[in-house]
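Hi,

Apologies if this is the wrong queue. I'm a grad student, and the batch job for Maltose alpha-D-glucosyltransferase/alpha-amylase from Solirubrobacter pauli produced an output file that my downstream script rejects. I'm not sure whether the problem is my script or the file. Here is the sequence I used:
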Amino acid sequence: MSVKVTSDLWWKNAVVYCLDVEMFYDNDGDGCGDLLGLTERVDYLAGLGVSVLWLMPFYPSPNRDDGYDITDFYAVDPALGTLGDFTELVRTCRDRGIRVIADFVMNHTSIEHPWFQAARSSPDSPYRDFYVWVDERPPEKPGDLVFPDAETSNWTFDRKAGQYYQHRFYKHQPDLNLANPAVRDELAQVMGFWLQQGLAGFRVDAVPFLIEGALDDPHQILRDLRAYVNRRAGDAVLLGEVNLPAEQVREFLGDEDGDELHMVLDFIGNQAFYLALARGSAAPLADALRSYPQVPPSASLGRFVRNHDELTLDKLSEEERAEVFARFGPDESLQLYGRGLRRRLPTMFDGDERALRMAYSLAFSLPGTPVLFYGEEIGMAENLEIEGRYAVRAPMQWAADGGFTLPGVSSRRPMVSGAFGPERVNVTDQRRDAGSLLNWFERLIRRRRECPELGFGALTVLDVGAESVFAHRVDWDDATIVAVHELSGKPVTVELPVEDGEALVDLFGDRSCSLPATLQLEPYGAHWFRVARSGVRLPP
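Support response: The file is valid. Your script probably expects a header line. Output copied below for reference.
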């Protein structure tokens, strides 16, 4: 097994942890998480084993869209700390072997950003062409709206400017005009600034909207950004949010050498995963993974169970989406925009940890880069008292009394309550319990990082003759990992079609067996094996 390449292409064997600074840990007792508080918790992340910290927006913002409406790309929101605090966070993470990436919102600004205020003030302003303006509102289709619960159009008339401006998201987030070279240069400079502050890359927000209609060859924008980032920091990474059909997603990774995004989040696999869980059938996930185009050798897919927005199911058919809603969110209050769920996984499975562990084991065993959202490692739930998609962004539960802020201080958002509240689900108690979900996650992450073939290898979905079992193998050089997961919660016996070895060595327990192998799987059973071959020494 070749290991030299793994250090250069570090993102292919990383484990990413995404968090909202405001909701992670409050150091100064004002009810809002901050950078100093996060720095205090870096050792927690290091102990968990994550290698990349992904920060949601921490820039100055009116916070009408949880920080994604930015007023200054070059600063830190004073409520979260200072640029010095940010530098200390990055330094501490680097000391613990953790890289830091951050959300980069390139497709729009806040309506309060000085660029927009200057743009609307005069048609002669040099910033007028930083945004997209028209005299007459263009025709639109209902499906064009990203947030149909809040907006009725992608165009809003600005009285001061005397024109309509485009906003694919909220009206307080005017779209930047990426067709303007000055805008592209400004955004590249922003990236250069944060790379100089120590970032290891960016998660690029809403990439399809970013390049839509900007140039005759819109992907040139991504090629230019990739080239710029590579010049400034050769090992920096661009992780893109691209929720499109698989064939189109592949285009955002560029040519065979990879000249656009380094990584994309796998929304197609994620949606098929939930359909498979809803049916208790491996077929939807198997079909989606088999049909996914091959990605460039240097690229990776971000595999996730839960993200920080609504759990979107928009690429499923209406009938398929109805199946997932019926299984995991039948009440309309649990749904959002008619296309997604505002729940976390523990409540979808009614707290069944067997199902939780199986789901994360499966996600971590697929070729690609695992991505966790804060609190998943302890089984945090959503708080439906919080509006819309922010329901999954409740304060982190550190102790039985919450532990997020000082005693007696109210957090900016209410904590989860009830069966999944901090008195029942928290870091402190789970640290002391060897069998807890938290300690299981530490073992899972450690084992995943010890299996570079899962980051670099090729996937083959296996047919084991049981509808409820998803089985696959990943091959890289002379190493092979085989993983088996039962999705329906019912026991089953399967025959593994693996014939090119002598035995299967269990990576988490004592299920090692000779080949050919017959496995008896318990409900929601999850197993990883390495294939032992004559003359090939296995890692420990």
